[in-house]
Specification:
The complex is a heterodimer of chains A (about 120) and B (about 120).
Chain A: E1 5-7, E2 10-13, E3 19-24, E4 31-37, E5 43-50, E6 65-69, E7 75-79, E8 88-95, E9 106-107, E10 111-115
Parallel strand pairs in A: 2-10
Antiparallel strand pairs in A: 1-3, 3-7, 4-5, 4-8, 6-7, 8-9, 8-10
Chain B: E1 3-5, E2 10-14, E3 19-21, E4 24-26, E5 32-39, E6 46-52, E7 59-61, E8 64-69, E9 74-79, E10 88-96, E11 105-106, E12 110-115
The chains are: A mainly beta (about 120), B mainly beta (about 120).
């Protein structure tokens, strides 16, 4: 079946502009995660959604970052007034369920964001 | 606090050599999960293995094997008879069971290059 998809695959923007990154999780997966991977670095947790529960936003680096998940499916990560340090690959992952028993996370191909 | 250390930033081996990727973790929990993910040049992370803290039995899957030692807080990954297709960045990760969801802390990754 279809895996996690992300769009766009690449995004180049100018400093100060807003960007929206989209994630389509695997159908039926209730948990959704956003990570940021800076060049040569590991994965930095940003935000987590589980069903209709309030998201865990503890990883968002600043109030310029926000995310929504509509209808428990598609998620959009928004970065306002982008800065050059926001340049990174933004990865989305989904898993079948969460809480109590760990489930494997399935990752999308990522969106490479470049802020000029 | 949780932490995952992968001291080897980059490793190069000649095809057919064996290679071990090191992973050392820190956690105060007695119940936790450890993982390895592979990120090939295409960028999409691929789940390799999950191990819970109560299962120290080593695991072998084809050319891959994992050595989990709680006494040294290590979860090392060995590839036997390496192949060019093994070239990728490998991430070790940790999840503590006390969290209400599966928040995963990733190490910085080890970039493996297998030279033909």
């Amino acid at each position: 079946g279809a895996g996690v998809s992300q769009s766009p695959s690449n995004k180049v923007t100018e400093k100060g502009k807003d960007v929206e990154l989209r994630c389509d999780p695997i159908s039926g997966h209730t948990a959704l995660y956003w990570y940021r991977q800076s060049l040569g670095q590991g994965l930095e947790f940003l935000i987590y959604f589980q069903g209709n529960s309030a998201p865990d936003k503890s990883g968002l680096p600043s109030d310029r970052f926000s995310a929504e998940r509509t209808g428990g499916s598609v998620s959009t990560l928004t970065i306002q007034r982008t800065q050059q340090e926001d340049s990174a690959v933004y990865l989305c992952a989904s898993s079948p369920q969460s809480g109590g028993t760990y489930n494997e996370q399935f990752f999308g191909p990522g969106t490479r964001l470049t802020v000029l | 606090a949780q932490k995952v250390t992968q001291a080897q930033t980059e490793i190069s081996v000649v095809e057919k050599e064996d290679v071990t990727l090191d992973c050392v973790y820190e956690t105060r929990d007695t119940t936790y999960y450890l993982f390895w993910y592979k990120q090939p040049p295409s960028g999409e992370l691929v789940f390799l293995i999950r191990r819970n803290s109560f299962d120290e039995q080593n695991e072998i899957s084809g050319r891959y094997s994992w050595n989990f030692q709680k006494s040294t807080s290590s979860f090392n990954f060995t590839i036997t008879a390496s192949q060019v297709v093994d070239s990728a960045v490998y991430f070790c990760a940790l999840s503590e069971a006390k969290t209400s969801y599966d928040k995963v802390i990733f190490g910085p990754g080890t970039s493996l290059s297998v030279i033909p």
